[in-house]
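Entry for the shared binder. Reason: the reviewer on the internal report wants the predicted structure included alongside the sequence.
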Amino acid sequence: MFTDNKTGKNKKLNKVSAVLKLSLFLVIILGIPAYIYFFQHDWIDTLKNYDEVVAALREYKTESALIYIGAMVLQIVISIIPGQVLQLAAGYLYGFWLGLIFSLIGSIIGAFITYFFAKIIGKDAIHVLFGEKKINDVLSHMNSRRAVAIVFLIYLIPGLPKDICNYVAGLSELKFRPFIIISTLGRTPGIMGSLIIGRQVMHANYTSAVVIGIVAVILFILGIIFKNKLLDLLNRFYDKIMS
């Protein structure tokens, strides 16, 4: 009898813990973005303004690199914050290679935080609320070749919700190692393109910036045309990193 009471109390505590974790998870991925969008929209407008971002980073001089990395992390954790203008500004201020290093550091830190936040907080909550076996049966398919290819394409194709994918990956059974490698590889061409355009703008070379944009569109179209070969290459890469 005593054991039954103790088991019942543990189940109630687990449910309360699950609700609290799920609430925290939803606040981070939905509540904060909604608050910023509806009540602090000026922040978004500022981060969409290239001149204002450049001026803000210039104001901090030597500390601007750390601020830029922090901003990259923040825009990944709070996925509603735009990141492309930040990368254009980085190309303008730091040049291509330093801008790429700073951008990748921020992206990897942001992906690490969101992936493990979802895995520790969100996954535990969902397991308790809906049953661990049921959830694992559904999400086990994510640790597969197909999942890795899908993740890569999400990060590669412009306009798709890349940063929310970090949370989804954390909730899934997709391992961190293939996730961080594939997501970084997929994200890098877009970052490189933004940095190059920002660098060309610095030198008032607008023609080159337009040409780079056109090349990016052509590469995107070629990616769609040869998607099967790309997926086959990703499958072989997945086998290699998982061996």
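Summary line for the report: Residues 84-130 form the longest helix (47 residues).
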